C-alpha cells in the first residue's frame, strides 16, 4: 500500500476549454506587448521582432507580416512535434495576428517612455508565452527550427536563436536610432529572463 501511495500519478491533461482560454489569454497578453512596442517605436527578437522591423520599414500591418512569416514553419512543427502542437500554434499565431489588428482600434497608448515600454512589453510577452507553453502551443518561428537543428545537427538551440536575434537587431539599426535599439534589447532581455526563470517542466506538471 505504501509503495502504491508513493507511486507518481499521471498528471491530468488540460481540457479543450482550458486550452482555449490559455491560448486566448496568452495571445492577448502578447498582443498587448506588441502594442506597447509599437507605441514606443521599439522591436524585439525572434519572428515577432523581424515582423516589427519589416512593418516599420514597409508600412504594412504587423499582423499580416507575422502570419505570413510563420507559414513555412508549420511543416517542420508537424514533423517534429505533431498535430496537436501544430494546430495550437497555428491558432495562436492566427489569434495574435487578429488581436494586433483589433487592439489599437479599442486601446490607444499615446505616451510611452521607451524604457518603460520595453520593460512592460517584456513582462507581458513573457507572461503570455508562458501561458501558451503550458497549454502546448507556441508562436511558431525560429524556435521550432532551432530545436530541430539541435536534434538533427547537434547545433545548440540557444545559439541559433541568439544568431537570429543578432540579425534582427542589426536590421533594426537600419530603421531605428541606436538608443531605440538599446531599449529594445532591454525589453528582449526581460522577456528571456522571465521565460528562463519560469518555464520549468519539473515545476509545472499539468499538461
- Overall, the morphology is globular
Structural class: mainly alpha
- End-to-end distance: 27 Å
**Strand segment count:** 0
Q: What profile does the largest beta sheet have?
A: none
- As an assembly, this protein is single chain
Mean pLDDT: 84
* Total discrete domains: 1
How much helical structure, as a percent, in the residues? over 70%
The share of residues in extended strands comes to under 5%
Number of helices: 10
Radius of gyration, rounded? 18 Å
SSE order: HHHHHHHHHH
Low-confidence stretches: 1-5
Question: Could you walk me through the main structural features you see in this protein, from its secondary elements to its overall organization?
Answer:
This protein is mainly alpha-helical and 207 residues long. It has one domain (18-198). 74% of the residues lie in helices and 0% in strands. The protein contains 10 helices and no strands. α3 packs parallel to α9 and α5 packs across α6. The radius of gyration is 18 Å and the shape is globular. Mean pLDDT is 84; it is low at 1-5.
Summarize the structure.
The protein is 74% helix and 0% strand. It has 207 residues and is mostly helical. Residues 1-5 have low confidence and may be disordered.
Core attributes:
globular, 207 residues, disordered N terminus, 74% helix, mainly alpha
Amino acid at each position: 500500500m505504501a509503495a502504491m501511495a508513493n507511486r507518481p500519478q499521471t498528471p491530468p491533461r488540460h481540457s479543450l476549454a482550458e486550452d482555449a482560454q490559455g491560448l486566448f489569454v496568452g495571445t492577448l497578453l502578447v498582443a498587448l506587448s506588441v502594442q506597447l512596442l509599437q507605441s514606443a517605436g521599439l522591436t524585439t527578437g525572434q519572428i515577432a521582432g523581424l515582423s516589427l522591423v519589416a512593418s516599420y520599414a514597409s508600412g504594412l500591418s504587423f499582423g499580416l507580416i507575422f502570419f505570413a512569416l510563420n507559414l513555412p514553419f508549420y511543416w517542420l512543427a508537424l514533423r517534429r512535434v505533431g498535430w496537436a502542437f501544430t494546430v495550437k500554434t497555428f491558432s495562436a499565431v492566427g489569434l495574435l495576428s487578429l488581436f494586433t489588428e483589433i487592439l489599437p482600434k479599442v486601446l490607444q497608448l499615446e505616451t510611452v517612455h521607451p524604457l518603460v515600454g520595453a520593460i512592460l512589453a517584456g513582462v507581458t510577452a513573457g507572461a503570455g508565452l508562458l501561458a501558451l507553453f503550458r497549454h502546448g502551443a507556441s508562436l511558431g518561428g525560429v524556435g521550432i527550427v532551432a530545436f530541430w537543428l539541435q536534434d538533427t545537427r547537434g547545433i545548440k538551440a540557444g545559439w541559433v536563436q541568439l544568431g537570429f536575434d543578432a540579425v534582427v537587431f542589426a536590421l533594426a539599426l537600419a530603421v531605428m536610432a541606436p538608443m531605440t535599439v538599446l531599449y529594445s534589447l532591454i525589453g528582449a532581455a526581460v522577456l528571456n529572463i522571465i521565460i528562463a526563470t519560469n518555464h520549468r517542466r519539473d515545476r509545472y506538471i499539468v499538461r
